[in-house]
Design brief:
There is one protein chain. This protein is mainly beta. The protein is built from seven helices and 46 strands. It has a six-stranded mixed sheet with strand order 9-10-17-16-12-13, with no helix packed on it. It has a six-stranded mixed sheet with strand order 26-34-33-28-29-30, with no helix packed on it. A hairpin with a 2-residue loop joins strand 43 (about 665-670) and strand 44 (about 675-680). Helix 4 (about 575-600) runs parallel beside helix 7. This is Polymeric immunoglobulin receptor.
């Protein structure tokens, strides 16, 4: 049983797992005596270009007999009337067949390589007789969407009788379509009519306008009743227009150019996709309406009567027949004139893959990689934002020549396009993201449209990884240092600073590369990227970007604005910025310690009454029971004077201690796989800016982690207290000063409580 199952699975698997990349017209309708051309596409690989091309006819048992091939073979049936031409540069070959006969109708395959090996495409050819009389039957052959006028003769005996037309269906049953008494079938309402010229004419005409595929078939014209009436047979062939073949790769773009002629230049145009039920679903029209399934993926324009629609990020379900037509309400309707396409989406594509969705956080950035044809290095690249096509389509934001002028106000300091000639890609970076930036964006060039692409930007919750101050003020002639903090996950990335202009973002030299006015210094130990601007001039004012790159790909960026002020009007140079930050940190630390003394139950002062004997064991001796009350009051005055003075002195000691601590390196050790590095947390300009916490009684503990793939690390802060053998926590100078101040407050409160609640001794 298992063997039988495996045999069936192996037999079915090649069919369901592989789709042939060969593509051609699925159906061809031609009239007898005319000629036809069958164009077949194949992937233009080196092997396919030089492989055998063939055209064969399928037999009843599945075999396919070769009629003509690129090796020079021609069957007897095709001698003198068929040829096959290969076009390897475009990946196509064409089969031309002349002097068609009805016997040529049937099923065929166009393919590459050996017959019946899967690299082929099925084609159905139908050859119908031309208009005229064939074996007593009138034959009409008209194009889809056109108009036909069928002549129905009768004898004079039936002049006063009813005239009618019916359509034959299975079992020779004939359903009435129209008659002279006023009846008209629902499928022919508004399209069909009978024309009877006078009372002496022995001929009436059956006219059908806007021919549909369903109109194809056999009809019977009748004058009089079924028993004695005059009847004539009609064979109507509605010829489908041979669609234009469109071959595109999965994920690429395609364009439909609909040119219907001057007679409908002012009529609304539509493009629709035909489904399996033979209904045509709207894709887009000139009235600004579009299908939600194509949201963000279509661009349209209507210039000089030509309606053009670009579809990008092609999917498998986009393959199939498309139809363009004209209708006053812009809704699909099979009419004349019309234009048809057959789209094939090649799933075995070499088109560069890329994410169709990028995510960013408010205040963060995104870097979008855009492909273009590597042969068009000098083409103009651009990036536009897709909008409702009823409004403005996709207005460009930035080009390879710089930021578009009318977008300067909204994207000043935020947007740049990096053109990287040679590798077939360019990068667009957008930072300082807001919730309003969410939407669809297109990568465009003025060259090959097949390389156009779209990306959707989504704004999600989170915080930017890179951190800088939003604005830095500096006075003319001073030196300023811009500090950019990057998380440890960017340790191995390349860091950079650049100055933004509307022409791009020019990289600033590192210390090893030059000694200009602007110098970049990246301290790997502290994960700080510092940009120093010396002797600042007015020309140094503007936007500066800090960013990271992984190899050649840009990852994240962040922007800071440097405002240059005249002497005496600015906020000071680098030292004043640091001093202000130090004062803020000292004030915060003092408030924090005072709060902990009041709120933490471990540091609370016991104010309950004590036994005199217990009080005697304190740092101040108990008062003599026989001493006077005046002496107790004097002691209280002395203590109330000394305690505030001691508090002031302790605060001064704390300030000095904190300032000294800022110049020390409080080095904590972390591990990155088998490598170790020192990260100095005291290098931060202000610990509050980077989310630092003062965890009293706890020390940073390194946690070494090995993950598959790229090097990663996790730095955690844990409590070092153990149940068996407690370890002494390592404290910085700032922590020691805080603890000293806490101890002093405890001692002072204890003294005050003892003096107030215990008897005083002389």
């Amino acid at each position: 049983m298992m063997f039988f199952f495996l045999t069936c699975l192996l037999a079915v698997f090649p069919v369901v797992s592989m789709k042939s990349p060969i593509f051609g017209p699925p159906e061809i309708d031609s009239v007898e005596g005319t000629s036809t051309s069958i164009k077949c596409y194949y992937p233009p690989t080196s092997v396919n270009r030089h492989s055998r091309k063939y055209w064969c006819r399928q037999g009843p048992k599945g075999q396919c007999t070769t009629l003509i091939s690129s090796n020079g073979y021609v069957s007897k049936d095709y001698e003198g009337r068929a040829n096959l031409t290969n076009f390897p540069e475009s990946g196509t070959f064409v089969v031309n067949i002349d002097h068609l006969v009805q016997g040529d109708s049937g099923s065929y395959k166009c393919g590459v390589g050996i017959n019946n090996r899967g690299l082929s495409f099925d084609v159905r050819l139908r050859v119908v007789p031309g208009s005229g009389v064939l074996n007593g039957t009138q034959v009409y052959a008209e194009d889809l969407g056109g108009k036909v006028s069928i002549s129905c003769p009768f004898t004079s005996a039936n002049l006063p009788n009813v005239k009618s037309v019916c359509k034959q269906i299975a079992d020779k049953h004939c359903i009435r379509v129209i008659d002279s008494a006023g009846y008209k079938g629902p499928n022919y309402e508004g399209r069909a009519k009978l024309i009877i010229q006078g009372t002496t004419q022995t001929e009436f005409f059956f006219v059908i306008d806007q021919l549909q595929v369903e109109d194809d078939g056999k009809y019977v014209c009748q004058a009089g009743d079924d028993s004695s009436g005059d009847k004539s047979n009609v064979d109507l062939h509605v010829l489908k227009p041979e669609p234009e073949l469109v071959y595109a790769d999965l994920g690429s773009s395609v364009r439909f150019d609909c040119a219907l002629g001057p007679e409908v230049v002012n009529v609304a145009k539509f493009l629709c996709q035909e489904n399996k039920e033979k209904t045509c679903n709207l894709v887009a029209n000139t009235l600004g309406q579009w299908n939600q399934a194509f949201k963000g993926r279509i661009l349209s324009q209507n210039n000089n009567g030509v309606f053009s629609v670009d579809v990008t990020n092609l999917r498998k379900e986009d393959a199939g027949p498309y139809l363009c037509g004209a209708n006053s309400d812009g809704q699909p309707r099979k009419s004349r004139p019309s234009q048809a396409w057959q789209l094939f989406v090649n799933e075995e594509t070499t088109f560069p893959s890329r994410p169709s969705v990028v995510k960013g956080v408010v205040g963060g950035s995104v870097a979008v990689l855009c492909p273009y044809n590597p042969k068009e290095v000098n083409s103009v690249k651009s990036w536009c934002r897709w909008e409702d096509i009823q409004n403005s389509g996709c207005p460009p934001l930035v080009q390879s020549t710089g930021l578009v002028k009318n977008q300067y106000e909204q994207y000043n300091g935020r947007l740049v396009l990096y053109d990287e000639p040679g590798n077939g890609t360019y990068t667009v970076i957008l930072n300082q993201l807001t919730a309003q930036d969410a939407g669809f964006y297109w990568c465009l060039t003025n060259g090959d449209i097949h390389w156009r692409s779209m990306v959707e930007l989504k704004i999600v919750e989170g915080q930017p990884n890179l951190k800088v101050p939003k604005t830095v003020n500096v006075e003319l002639g001073e030196t300023v240092q811009l500090t950019c903090h990057s998380p440890c996950k960017f340790y191995s990335y390349k860091k950079f600073w650049c100055k933004w202009t509307d022409q791009g973002c020019s990289a600033l030299p590192s210390q090893d590369e030059g000694s200009g006015q602007a110098v970049v210094n990246c301290d790997q130990n502290s994960q700080l990227i510092n940009l120093t601007l010396k002797q600042v001039t007015k020309g140094d004012e503007g936007w500066y970007w800090c960013g990271v790159k992984e190899g050649l790909q840009y990852r994240e960026t962040v922007a800071v604005y440097v405002a240059v002020k005249e002497k005496g009007t600015g906020s000071g140079a680098l030292s004043s910025v640091r001093a202000a930050a130090a004062e803020d940190e000292i004030e915060t630390s003092v408030r924090k310690v005072e709060s902990e003394v009041v709120q933490d139950p471990r540091l609370s002062v016991d104010t309950q009454e004590k036994d005199p004997e217990d009080a005697a064991g304190g740092s101040i001796a108990s008062a003599d029971p026989g001493s006077s009350a005046g002496q107790g009051g004097s002691s209280k005055v002395v203590v109330s004077t000394l305690v505030p003075l001691a508090l002031v002195l302790a605060l001064g000691v704390l300030v000095v201690g904190v300032l000294r601590a800022r110049h020390r390196k409080n080095v904590d050790r972390i591990s990155i796989r088998s490598y170790r590095t020192d990260i100095s947390m005291s290098d931060f300009e202000n610990s509050r800016d980077f989310g630092a916490n003062d965890n009293m009684g706890a020390s940073p503990v390194s946690q070494e982690t090995t993950l598959g793939g790229k090097d990663e690390f996790i730095a955690t802060t844990e409590n070092t207290v153990e149940t068996e053998e407690p370890k002494k926590a390592k404290r910085s100078s700032k922590e020691e000063a805080d603890m000293a101040y806490t101890a002093f407050l405890l001692q002072a409160n204890n003294m005050a409580a003892n003096i107030q609640d215990s008897p005083s001794k002389a």
